[in-house]
Each structure stands twice: as structure tokens, then as C-alpha cells.
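Allow me, if you will, to draw on your knowledge of protein folds for a short while. Thank you for your consideration; the sequence and its C-alpha cells are set out here:
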Amino acid sequence: MARRSYGQYCGLVRAVDMVGERWALLIIRDLFVGPRRFTDLRNGLPRIPTNILSARLRELEAAGVVHRRVLPRPSGSMVYELTAYGRELEGVVLALGRWGAKALGEPKPGEIITCDSITIAMRSLFRAEEAADVAVAYELRLGDVVLGVRVDKGGLDVTEGGLEGADLVIETGPAIRALLAGEIAPGAAIADGTVHVTGDPALLTTFTTLFRI
């Protein structure tokens, strides 16, 4: 079925035409973390029907936002990745994530988090201006999601999995939103058990300075 036209000659309209269909921006979000196989994308978006994922990837390829590449041997897998044009969306995606985080509230029943979604959340909420003289490494544990978060003099690197030698291990759940929104103080979060830390507790305050909703 042909898409309905907005009937306007406008850059925003063209952008919505290319990335405004349901699931498209979430596919792009996950590809900002790195190249993904079709099965990786499907596993990261467990509610997306396979036919819709296929359709969105075709549309994003046709728009020049995504392309396919075969990995070198011994893998040989075909992956999807963002083109240079697609990567120009990074600022838009991060800004939308930062804006949307203000309206998150408590998780609704059935809502999940993934490594890719939290990776992009960390990038969205990072305050580089607060990190100019900071070098610190965190291991963030949110249920099954474990990330290494390394800040180095204004730079940020987020990787999946544990981080050996992390200065602070932070283990929590939905309380991470309230913590980063300033609705609960770091000391109070530790005291009431909503956040567990291993390492210098003062570094949790640093964390809430570096990452804020």
C-alpha cells in the first residue's frame, strides 16, 4: 500500500517520510550502538513482527540511511549498519531520548530495557561539560543488563558487559530514573536499598552529576 502524502515541500516532512514509520527510530537507535544482524535487531526489539522489521530495513536502505555489509571471515555474517548519512541522525536521536526521558515515569507492565536502549540512554543523558576534568569508570547493573560506563576527560565509552577494575559498581532497577532525575538523593537511595553500590559511595553523586534527566 502506498504511503499517504503530507503534501508539503519541507525538510521535516522528508525526514518523517524516511524515519517516521513505527519502529524505524528504534532500529536506528540500536544501530547507533553498532552493526547488527537481522536476528540481533529482532532480539533487541522482541515485539516487532518479522515482516515489519524486514519492511523497515528495506525502507531505510532505500532512503540511504542503512546499508548491508558482509563481515570478514570467519564470521561471514551479513549485518546492517548506518550509512554516513544515517549517522547524521545521532544528535536528533540523542536529543529525542533526552527529551522523552523527562516523561518516563514508572515502567508500565511488560515494558523492558535492553543493552542497546540503556547504552543510548547513557549517551543521551551524558553531560560532557561536567566531565571535562573527570576520569572514572562505572559498572552499571540493571537486572540482566550490565554495562561498562567509562568517562575520561569529557569523553564517554559505554560497552556491554562487566567492567573489570570499575571504580564503582551500581546495582539498581527502575530507581535509576528517579536518581538521575534528582527525585531521590544518592545517599538516600543507598540508605533505603533502592541502589546498591560497591566502591566509594561518593562516586554515585559524581554519577548523578555526569548523567542527568
User: Anything to note?
Assistant: Residues 50-62 form the longest helix (13 residues). The two ends are 40 Å apart (CA to CA). Residues 119 and 158 are 6 Å apart (CA to CA).
